[in-house]
Amino acid sequence: MSALSTLEAHWPVLVVSGILEAVWAAALAASDRFRRLVPTVVFVVALAASMAGLAYAMTAIPTGTAYAVWVGIGALLAVVWSMVSGAEKVTRVRVLLLLGLVLCVVGLKVVA
Q1: pTM exceeding 0.85
Q2: Which residues cross the membrane (predicted)?
């Protein structure tokens, strides 16, 4: 496998890990300080998988880029989930800022 294809194989893992970051954050909030079993189990499993995927991605993607993309995806999805669930208000400014975050994450992929 060439270096380029090895690098490209790590990006989908990083994206899934970022998605799992949002999952564990939502599960943590729903766990009620680890007093609810199902959200607590989802939190632990998603956290472990997210960290493992991030660690794997960092073997081919520079740490700063991988971490920024991972956090960006997780933060974006966590905020979107909060807006969809009604926990946070949807405003034009928030949506524009989230679009800016998406552009930054995509930009990091493009220049990587």
Answers
A1: yes
A2: 12-30, 37-58, 64-81, 93-111
CA distance 11 to 86: 31
Residue 19: closest CA among 50, 65, 52: 50
Other C-beta atoms closer than 10 Å to the C-beta of 3 total: 8
Compute the half-sphere exposure of residue 40: CA atoms within 13 Å on the CB side of its CA.
6
Residue 8 has, within 13 A of its CA and on its CB side, a CA count of 5
Q: Cα 21 vs. chain centroid, distance in angstroms?
A: 4
How many CB atoms within 10 Å of residue 49?
16
User: Which tens digits make up the pLDDT trace of 70-84?
Assistant: 999 999 999 999 999
Name the 3-class secondary structure at 101.
helix
State the total domains in the chain: 1
- Measuring CA to CA, which residue among 74, 60, 59 is closest to residue 18? 74
